[in-house]
Specification:
The chain is an alpha/beta fold. It is built from 22 helices and 16 strands. The protein folds into three domains: 151 residues, Rossmann fold; 168 residues, 3-Layer(aba) Sandwich (Rossmann fold); 175 residues, Rossmann fold (3-Layer(aba) Sandwich), CATH 3.40.50.
């Protein structure tokens, strides 16, 4: 047995989950899924599903990468290169971050366009750095920008063009234009991932394995854990029960999933699961909203489902517990999400609304940012919002009251911070503080990484979100070599493009711009109190 166990504690939730579980068994879902049956999600999803089920068996194939990765890690160490930077977005970065944080090995994850955060990464141990650039399509704007910046930094540090190119390891799909780019720049190694696995299901493919192994994590054990669970998936299994729990609860109105950890030994699993679940289920006006919490909680109402990974907390009122090692958790949640998608009647493998914000970003880069005046200014915080939504505000506290009042019944508040998630880390304290002031779920996302995650659900799922976007002045911008825009310009365009996508759906959206980041964050935290 894998040790992957789902324990449902709440009697009412158990009844709903068991009914959905029986339905899935009656439809022979485990056997069909194990056989790669692409018809499980309906005719509209069949063509996509037919080339997106490789995650079921990818752990076994990924094992073939391990000898090459061990040799590459030793080769780099022999040259004094022992600092691994991962440039990737969404599924390409979140799983390696969980793997390495759990293993307590050093991996710098670069999934931002914030100039301060990018600049800090470039200044950190450059002479000892190898950059893993991960992109399925090869055209991800953030990762291409990171690649350009690091290539220039290596050249500026005195490396020849050949030596600079050899500081890169590329992970991409077969047939990606990134393969030609890697050859042109003389990358040290290119790893081709499983093309039949979508990005958010790619934790156990080369996208998860390559950077983690180079950083020193024990990925062989991770794959062992996943393969053990994979052997159980052709019949009734615990991952099926988890899918029945998620999908059944959502259909019964509990479509806000409160995710917390308690003594599992795994660090950051909720951030990875958030992307998997939100981007997979948030479409056609349906979806499951993950709310990642620091600790188990009963905050919420009848539309929430609290699930804890790890042991039973002393207090917290979790509806269910999910036990298991990390490799099994990855595969188990992927399986459960696909099953929940079937119950919800959506295609869990596409992301139809993700490109909208990308297109808006490119248009704004081409045409320039919209010219707007703040509706109000309080110290270091400029407030941008429609006057009718904002009302008569006399203080920053009034603004936040207006934001909370705009959250509809059965809705949620999403705080979206286009800031430096390390230098401006205290901005994340807004989530629990705001959550204490409302009985509605409150999420927090760092931009632009959430665009590759919950961004799909914000626009494609139930249109009941209220959005508080936070942007900040750029103290020192960074050019992107070969582009006519900077990191600061790209970040601003991404924020503006996403805000336009939300406003276009008539969703309540507010932007707070910090003209002094530390002072502005301090003001916000004080105003919440």
């Amino acid at each position: 047995m894998t040790g992957f166990i789902v324990e449902i504690l709440d009697a009412a939730v158990r009844q709903v989950a068991e009914a959905a579980h029986e339905e899935l068994l009656a439809d022979d879902v485990p056997a069909k899924l194990a056989a790669g049956d692409a018809t499980l999600w309906g005719p509209d999803a069949e063509s996509e599903a037919a080339v997106r089920l490789g995650w079921l068996t990818t752990a076994a194939r990924s094992r073939e990468l391990l000898p090459r990765l061990a040799e590459l890690r030793q080769e780099l160490a022999d040259e004094g290169i022992d600092h691994v930077v991962l440039a990737g977005m969404g599924g390409s970065s979140l799983a390696p971050e969980v793997i390495c944080r759990t293993a307590d090995v050093d991996l710098t994850v670069l999934d931002t366009t914030d100039p301060g955060q990018v600049g800090a990464a470039l200044a950190d141990r450059l002479q000892q750095t190898v950059v893993v650039v991960s992109s399925k399509s090869g055209g991800t704007v953030e990762t291409d920008s990171h690649r350009r910046a690091y290539l220039q930094a290596f050249r500026d540090a005195g490396l020849s063009a050949e030596d600079a190119g050899r500081r890169f390891v590329i992970v991409t799909d077969p047939g990606s234009p990134f393969v030609a780019t890697a050859e042109e720049m003389g990358a040290r190694a290119v790893f081709l991932a499983d093309e039949n696995v979508g990005g958010r299901y790619s934790a156990l493919t080369a996208f998860g394995v390559v950077p983690s192994a180079l950083a020193g994590a024990d990925v062989a054990t991770l794959l062992d854990q996943a393969e053990t669970l994979a052997a159980e998936l052709d019949g009734d299994n615990q991952a099926l029960l988890l899918g029945a729990l998620l999908g059944g609860a959502a259909l019964a109105g509990r479509d806000k999933l409160l995710l917390a950890d308690h003594d599992s030994g795994i660090v950051g699993l909720g951030d990875w699961a958030e992307q998997l679940i939100a981007e997979s289920t948030g479409k056609l006006g349906r979806g499951i909203l993950p709310v990642v919490l620091d600790q188990p909680t009963t905050v919420g109402s009848g539309d929430t489902l609290a699930v804890v990974t790890g042991s039973a907390p002393d207090a917290g009122g979790a509806a269910a517990l999910v036990h298991g090692p990390l490799g099994a958790q990855f595969l188990g949640w992927e399986y459960a999400t696909a099953v929940a998608g079937r119950l919800l009647g959506i295609n869990p493998f596409d992301q139809p609304n993700v490109t909208e914000s990308k297109d808006n970003t490119q248009r704004l880069l081409d045409s320039g940012l919209p010219d707007a005046a703040p509706a109000a200014t309080f110290g270091a915080v400029e407030v941008y919002a429609d006057a009718d939504r904002l009302g008569d505000v006399q203080s920053l506290s009034d603004v936040l009251r207006a934001v909370l009042a705009a959250v509809p019944e059965q809705g949620y508040l999403a705080v979206l911070a286009y800031l430096d998630r390390f230098a401006d880390a205290s901005a994340a304290d807004l989530r629990p503080m705001l959550a204490r002031l409302t009985d509605r779920p409150v999420t927090f996302g760092w931009g632009p990484r959430f665009l590759h995650s919950t961004g799909q659900l914000h626009k494609g799922g139930p249109l009941n979100g209220t959005f508080l976007q936070i942007t900040g002045v750029v103290a020192e911008d960074l050019p992107i070599p070969g582009r006519d825009y900077t990191f600061g310009g790209l970040q601003a365009a991404q924020a503006a493009g996403d805000l336009q996508a939300l406003a276009g759906r008539q969703l309540p959206a507010y932007r707070l711009h910090l003209t002094d980041r530390p002072a502005g964050i301090g003001q916000l935290l004080e105003a919440v109190q």
